[in-house]
Design a protein that fits this description.
Blueprint: H1 2-45, H2 47-50, E1 54-55, E2 58-59, H3 60-99, H4 107-112
Antiparallel strand pairs: 1-2
Helix pairs in contact: 1-3
Length: 113
């Protein structure tokens, strides 16, 4: 009887950790998508106003459309990769500590734990 209660308790803890994990993942995704939308829309919408500023001799709106936004998108992907790796490590370690299932840990997390 106690083994079943322990299994149910560890299962509910695992579900709680999973819900926290997905909440963090959704928050990160929403933040990065909002940044992407704001900068992409902002540069295109305010192109005439940005043309009065220069960056290395080019109008800022031209530079941002040609190269700046591409660099920003690469930066967003880098941020996504780094932060998701941290979130996954933290939640996987927390999940393994609560459930005691080290076998469920991915190989990359085992190496870095």
């Amino acid at each position: 009887m106690t083994e079943t209660n322990t299994t149910v308790t560890s299962s509910s803890r695992a579900n709680n950790v999973n819900s926290v994990y997905w909440r963090h993942t959704r928050q990160l995704t929403a933040t990065l998508l909002a940044s992407w939308l704001a900068l992409t829309f902002g540069v295109l919408f305010f192109a005439r106003e940005l043309a009065s500023y220069t960056f290395f001799g080019w109008p800022l709106s031209f530079y941002m459309a040609a190269q700046g936004l591409t660099l920003f998108y690469v930066l967003l992907l880098t941020i996504l990769s780094i932060v998701m790796r941290r979130i996954e490590r933290a939640h996987q370690i927390h999940l393994n500590n609560q459930t005691g299932h080290a076998a469920d840990m991915p190989a990359s997390a085992k190496e870095n734990a």
